[in-house]
Amino acid sequence: MLRFDQLSYWERQQFIEENTFVIIGAGLIGMSTALSLRERYPSEKILILERGYLPTGASTKNAGFACFGSPTELLDDLNSIPEDKVWETVELRLKGLELLKKRIPLDAMSYQNCGSWDLISRDEPTIQQETIDTLNLEFQRRFGYQNVYKRDLDFQNKFGFRGFQAAYFNAYEGALDTGKLIQNLQQQCILAGIQFLFATQVDGWQAHMEHVVIETTHGTLDAQHLFICTNGFAQEVFPTELKPARAQVLITKPLKHQIKGTFHSDKGYYYFRDIGERILLGGGRHLDFETETSTAFEKNEHIRSALVEKLAHQILPGQTFEIEQEWSGIMCVGQEKKPIIKSLNKNVHAGVRMGGMGVAIGSAVGEALSKLV
Ligand SMILES: Cc1cc2nc3c(=O)[nH]c(=O)nc-3n(C[C@H](O)[C@H](O)[C@H](O)COP(=O)(O)OP(=O)(O)OC[C@H]3O[C@@H](n4cnc5c(N)ncnc54)[C@H](O)[C@@H]3O)c2cc1C
Questions:
Q1: CB 9 within 8 A of CB 214
Q2: Rounded distance, CA 58 to CA 341, Å?
Q3: Which residue out of 56, 228, 270, 363 has the highest number of ligand 1 atoms within 8 Å of its CB and is therefore the one to mutate?
Q4: CA–CA gap between residue 16 and residue 218 (Å, rounded)
Q5: For ligand 1, atom 21, which residue shows the shortest CA distance?
Q6: Residue 110's Cα: distance from chain center in Å?
Q7: Segment 153-181, tens digit of pLDDT
Q8: Which burial class, exposed, middle or buried, applies to 157 when counting CB atoms under 10 A from its CB (0-12, 13-18, 19+)?
Q9: What does the DSSP 8-state code read for residue 322?
Q10: Nearest atom, ligand 1, residue 32 CA
């Protein structure tokens, strides 16, 4: 591999020299930040450094839910996080979703206005209608969204599930094609004159008064501002505020099914949806938090078995299915669910800790980061 000092005059001029903004990470946040910076700074040089040959974290591996919170997840958060912080995070998700839908044409990311269902298992406590009414009132009061959660009494017939006692429908959530979303963001970046260097790992940086020196696997380069958009891989920078959270996903071979939409259960720890004739199911991290606090893209056999069992007994009961593919991705979590969006000094800024909702929140985080300079 050539080092930067072996590159041609043209290569150095185009990619390496005189960058105003350098971003680490070509995931949803890195690219959204780049596009928001471009809107604010039409002629500055912007470079994204990505260590994978593809973005290699969560953004190309997620389930493609355009979601902002199921009732069980919100109620769980309200039990453990101060109320204002919970609603501030919901607000950021809603704002992010609006921005995303403005930035990416809906058909370019195969956006489906399918809604979502929060499924309550038989062994979980029921939610009182009063509690749902209170959540709905808060959505209306704070954001003007009416009747966000509605009980669906017909969900068993519609979908053929087993083992769930209730379901709450949310018409404001949807699904999209994760691959198309990322591809469209990349295309928009290229069209906006934003450069990428893939297979380029950032190993460190030193902030000086007016610039930052960035060390990579291929040599050093300079920028006026550096943005850290490495999410689950940012633990060295934020050792106490965040940790990686691996998530497992399975997808079936095509089969006949009645499932249409996006579904969460167990406070959002399981999620599944149709991808045409296939079913995608992910989650189960709560079954083995310790092992899943990892940046290794590996399988967890215990969680895999639980996912297969969930498919067999609750999602596709009585049906034969085969698993076609499985993978894991790396998210980022912390004590708080709100993302970290802050400047570490005059020239180094970070947007990390996206939790399980970076699709929704990503565009809003990118916009907020671009306003730090
Ligand atoms: C299985 C799974 C399912 C999910 N489902 C959903 C969902 O349905 N809806 C939703 O909203 N969210 C979902 N999420 C969460 C969502 O995908 C993330 O919140 C979001 O993608 C985070 O984007 P990011 O750009 O911050 O991080 P990432 O996508 O992880 O991007 C960070 C990038 O930084 C690069 N990088 C790291 N360190 C370095 C370095 N030193 N030098 C250079 N590059 C580096 C990595 O290679 C990576 O490409 C899911 C996540 C997973 C894993």
A1: no
A2: 18
A3: 56
A4: 11
A5: 59
A6: 17
A7: 999 999 999 999 999 999 999 999 999 99
A8: exposed
A9: -
A10: 25
